[in-house]
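Handout, page 2. Input:
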Amino acid sequence: MNSSPARKPVHLAVYDTYADWETGHATAHLARAGHEIRTVGPSTDPVRSIGGLRVQPDLALDDVRPQDSSLLILPGADRWDTTDDLAPFARAARSFLDAGVPVAAICGATAGLAREGLLDDRDHTSAVSFYLAATGYAGGGRYVDADAVTDGNLITAGPTEPVAFAREIFRLLGVYEGEVLDAWYRLFHDSDPEAYAVLEKAAAQ
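Output:
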């Protein structure tokens, strides 16, 4: 596990109708590994997830700078496809990637990145290829039919793959690696009881 004392926060975007189940594995295990999770909203006004959870953002998007972050996580939300309200988060993702800071997008957030042109030249995935094609983006040739895809500092995943999404985040940030990362995935994705022993051994070291 990464135990650097100089670690910067992970920023989790939150907005009305955000899909609360898509980032839970990632944020829970990042926090347990010592990463500070800071929520970022359109403003600091409370938002409600698609599951009805009320969240008071720690920060407004305008106050977040890539150089102060180790990762920006963008969950899906109905609003990615029904309004342009979340376009500022896609523009923020561009500034993060331009600064060399990772971005992880899942479900509808991938469509937001497609509209911003961020998937045109990067390997990526989403719910299904024609979902992104409907955005009119130019990156269809880089679509990969996989549970989650990492290309450089960008992670993408579809809505049914929160565990694979978390796996790619852990790999990119060095939270879990090698056999431990594989065991974590097998435990939470496949309910593989043999993975417990690997994780317990790693925790004891």
